[in-house]
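Bit of a strange request maybe. I'm writing a small parser for structure token strings and I need a real example to test against, not something I typed by hand. Could someone generate the tokens for this chain?
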Amino acid sequence: MTTHTHTPPPFDSELAAALTVLGAALPTGVLPDAIPMLREMPVDPALHEQIAASGATREDHVIPGFEGAEIEVSIFRNPSQSVPGPGILHLHGGGMIAGNRFMGVDGFLPLLRDHGAVIVSVEYRLAPEFPDPVPVEDAFAGLLWMAEHASELGIDADRLIVAGASAGGGLAAGVTLLARDRNGPKLLASLLIYPMIDDRNDTVSAQQFEGIGVWDRTSNYTGWNALLGERRGGPDVSAYAAPARASDLSGLPPTFIDVGSAEVFRDENVAYATAIWAAGGECELHVWPGGFHGFDAFASHAQLSREMVKARNAWLNRMLER
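Reply from user aminoacidic:
Good idea to test on real output. This should exercise your parser:
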């Protein structure tokens, strides 16, 4: 008789050492009462220098979000660029409960220099104060605004990419489905960085990472409960909120998914890529052995982190050179 256990795969040795050093600074076992503390995380003070080094400037705009409410977006672009470039809609991480539009932008700044890209980063409203469908509809409103204002922003409207990490990756997947189902805007590609896409939280990998690593099963319950309330795990959850619920993944743009083997989101991400292939779609999937959630950001010096970013950027370059 086979005995099933939920022993987790090991962390990469270099990343395990980084986890030990980072210690209490990383969110394991986030409970609802920790949400205010998570929201106090400051903007990286180096971001301003990184923007300047990329030759970009930042502009802030207030745009209509879901049901006409005002939300903010930041545009990062090279003001001297004369030829329209690709538009990147960026959606930040934070478990649906924290984060801001400046988190993760630094990873896309090289696209300004290399491809003349314009980044539009959306300050979508957060749960639990603004539950589903507000976050994904705010994000989709950002895409609509970017497409409608493409000319004045210096964006080629035929080259739009939606991108995000963690919760932002889940929202990017939801926005991709909305763009398909609402007949546009047409997307060139969809970049999903270890996306948060399954509210059921019952995969093997979800059960393997409880009380260890970064953003464990308890944290995941906190984020999804904040977003969905009593609907979480039940039959009335939209695929736009939890894209793993989608029964039809046909007609999507080329998609990229990367995830660590040692994190909660591993199995839902692999299943999503498999469903895209089953529907006849194009998806590039990377599962990084021993990678914990967000390891490329928390331990950017590690060899595995560098390889992860290199693979992601190679895919982006291929999409933008089509």
